[in-house]
Specification:
Elements (H helix, E strand, L loop, with lengths): L3 E7 L3 E8 L6 E4 L3 H14 L2 E8 L6 H19 L8 E8 L2 E8 L5 E5 L6 E2 L2 E2 L1 H14 L2 E7 L3 H20 L16
Parallel strand pairs: 3-4, 7-10
Antiparallel strand pairs: 1-2, 2-4, 5-6, 6-10, 8-9
Helix pairs in contact: 1-4, 2-3
């Protein structure tokens, strides 16, 4: 089964291209113009074992908001496309990931019903040229456009560690939830579809 997608999004603020292979080896190529965000997307692909290509030309002269948001939207759309009818997936997952003093927890359901909840505060306002809050906004955009119920929580003292643990926990949980369970023939729902 081919679980891949290629999605492009163009607005007056950004041009985004994403390719995604859910059953990859964690190979990534990322160019958004925001160094720390590139590092986080690279980590996302590596730890989720997703082959991921992201290219974004955004209005960084304004700030990082549109770039991070639109990548989240486009990646969410690619995830939904790659999952198709979700036949045979595990569906639910939760992961906790530490990074030194920081810890992130992500609980998700590939439900088709977008919902996002977040607990915690980032310890610093930015990491490099990425606004820390945009990590939270990225996950909201991802969840909304992929049809995920996603609950996330962070704790720590260093925003770099908090954001990185958050991306890694999300990637690991998505890898678990999107994995094919050979015991399932249909979508994992009493409704018969997700």
């Amino acid at each position: 089964m081919d679980r891949t997608a290629a999605v492009a999004r163009e607005t007056a603020e950004t041009e985004v291209e994403v390719t995604l292979d859910l059953d990859g080896e964690g190979e990534t190529t990322v160019e958004t113009g925001v160094g720390f965000f590139d590092h986080m997307l690279d980590s996302f692909g590596t730890h989720g074992l997703f082959d991921l290509t992201v290219r974004c030309d955004g209005d960084l002269a304004v700030d990082d908001h549109h770039t991070v948001e639109d990548v989240g939207i486009t990646l969410g759309e690619a995830l939904a496309e790659a999952l198709g009818d979700k036949r045979g997936i595990a569906r639910f997952a939760d992961r906790q990931v530490p990074m030194d003093e920081a810890r992130a927890e992500v609980v998700l359901d590939v439900s088709g019903r977008p919902y996002f909840a977040f607990e915690g505060e980032f310890s610093q306002a930015s990491v490099g040229k990425m606004t820390s809050y945009m990590a939270r906004h990225f996950l909201r955009s991802l969840a909304t456009n992929a049809g995920l119920t996603l609950h996330a929580e962070i704790r720590g003292e260093n925003a770099h560690h908090e954001v990185e643990a958050l991306f890694k926990a999300t990637a690991r949980a998505l890898d678990d939830a999107t994995r094919i369970d050979e015991r399932r023939g249909d979508a994992p729902s009493t409704k018969g579809e997700l």
